[in-house]
Amino acid sequence: MRKEGLTYEDVLRIVELVKTTPFSEFRLKVGEIEVHLKRRNGAGGAPAVHGQPAAQTEAAAPARAAERSFAADAVLVRAPMVGTFYRAPAPGAEPFVEIGGHVDPDTTVCIIEVMKLMNSIAAETRGVVTEIPVANGARVEPGDVLMVIEPQPEDG
Amino acid sequence: MKKAPGTKRFDFVDVTLRDAHQCLWSTRMTTAMMTPILGAIDRAGYAFINILGGAVFDVCVRYLHENPWERVKLLCERLETPCDALTRGQSLYTFELFPDDIVELNSAVFAKLGVDVLTVYDALNDNRNVESSIGSGHDVGMKVNAMMTYTLSPVHTDAYYVARTKELVKLKADFIAIKDPTGLLTPERGRTLFPAVVKAAGSVPLKLHSHCQSGLAPEVYEIAIRSGFRYGYTASRPLANGASLPATEDIGARARKLGFRTSLDPAALREIAGYFTCVAEREGKPLGEIARYDAALYEHQIPGGMISNLRSQLQAMGMEHRLPEILEEVPRVRKDLGYPIAVSPFAQYIVTQATLNVVQGERYKTIPDEVRKYAMGYYGRLAAQPSDEFLERAAIRPGDLVTERPGEHIEPWIPRLRKELGPSVPDEDLLLAAFYPRALLEPLKKRAPQYEFRTTPLNELIRFIGSRGDIEFARVRFAGTDMSFTA
Hints:
The complex is a heterodimer.
Chain A: H1 8-20, E1 25-30, E2 33-39, H2 54-63, E3 75-78, E4 83-86, E5 102-103, E6 108-114, E7 117-122, E8 127-131, E9 139-140, E10 145-151
Antiparallel strand pairs in A: 1-2, 3-10, 4-6, 4-9, 5-8, 6-7, 8-10
Chain B: E1 11-14, H1 19-24, H2 31-34, H3 38-43, E2 48-52, H4 54-64, H5 68-78, E3 83-87, H6 100-113, E4 117-121, H7 128-139, E5 143-149, H8 158-170, E6 175-180, H9 187-201, E7 206-210, H10 217-227, E8 231-234, H11 248-257, H12 266-283, H13 297-300, H14 304-316, H15 323-336, H16 346-359, H17 369-375, H18 388-393, H19 414-421, H20 427-435, H21 438-441, H22 457-467, E9 471-478, E10 481-486
């Protein structure tokens, strides 16, 4: 196994600091590893938001100005983190969805890979995929639009 | 390797993937939370890894929408350490009784998926309810570990457990375990009970499975080790203690101090503990805390979760002030019912009957159907005769009593299910259809996520940072890689 220089004890110490100190900026260097964090304004010591970082996706939207426009009622699935965009669960496998495909809120539409960690991204809405603006295997930034979904009402 | 002569061993059964999160995380550990650390669990030196139990199976289906068979298959494939799966005997994963053909098919599916040890118990300690599991488990080549449930009552004496042990030896159990689901065992009781059971078990090795509600479990394990028990069920430290089982790290240290050899690998145990602490932080799950000794635990024996449930129900009816009266009625009802063990579903029977007795102002004015059926022996043999007062109010006459083995009075189900589902239905799907209504099984058809089979502390740090809503920028640099996140 590759030597990393960071142990679980170190990680838990960082976790504890992130949770308990009202920092606005945090820098740490352990061996060859450097961690640099900035906290949202006024969020010092705020309670953790657990689970999937959906809130981040929302917040990221206005921050990105140079974004093309989509249909007003379209629901946009955005990248919650930096990483590599994959349309299929494994190389050579069928894509999760195609344009024109129907999705439910819990349908996985793509994967964002970060450091070999696969993060399944759910549609979070019911509808039909009308556009997939990102190419398979492309690097994405937080807030990038991955899928455009035309919402459909609950009833069918 | 040749073992040093005269060296005594004590070995461990891991419950981190099963009972530990059942007790501390409401059974909500997903397969995706398990897979990254399976390699370390395999290296930790456990003799067995318990991967399934009634609640795990049920929560997989109802709440996690995971197919439990797929989890069992994946864990058995990935883990080289022998895997142990637990059922409630004739009730399998639920609290109703199933016919023998379903119990037998379940054993066959276990063996096919790679389960090495079938662990089985009956909440009444009526060993006729584990016969079909032991027999069918052996038929398909599994070892069978039969558990006896511990409780406190005037009839649950050492002699009572010795008699149950002898029954299990006769049924050819490969292991016998004492299961103490509410942490009622004390070192004092262990000093008489454990040697008696070890003696009665003869050459069959014993395992101890005791929870930590009273804070006494580590001492109780020490007595078990000294008395000749071969195995202890334990959990990784962050998921140990509290309502869970003791920490592997702690019991390992005690065993070594007593001069026993263990196969535990401290580096792997540290990695597992670090990983699960990170998962708890990311998912907002509690860590197990060492419980303080609480004498009240021994009075009513009702699990804490059930009391808080009852309190909120009484609150809704504006009768919260009757709770102390109800808790006083609980031991009387338990006695009237022949000392059922205060575990599901019998704990619910006791509490419901006690509540009715108090709220209606007259004892046994109303008797729920299940309580009556239980008292008639429908679910199995009672530990003691119900009181005359109860039998009279319930209008149970000697002719009403069920004396045959409970599995006996249920017709086979498989012919009907095969007819409904078609001849080519896989055994796994047939069993799920036997346990659950079809609508509950629909969500299980979704594709399983891509599982990660390795991780590092750095990965877990990044995943933690990613789970925080309050971090707007993160940059992590190491070994020529430079990553940044902006929210």
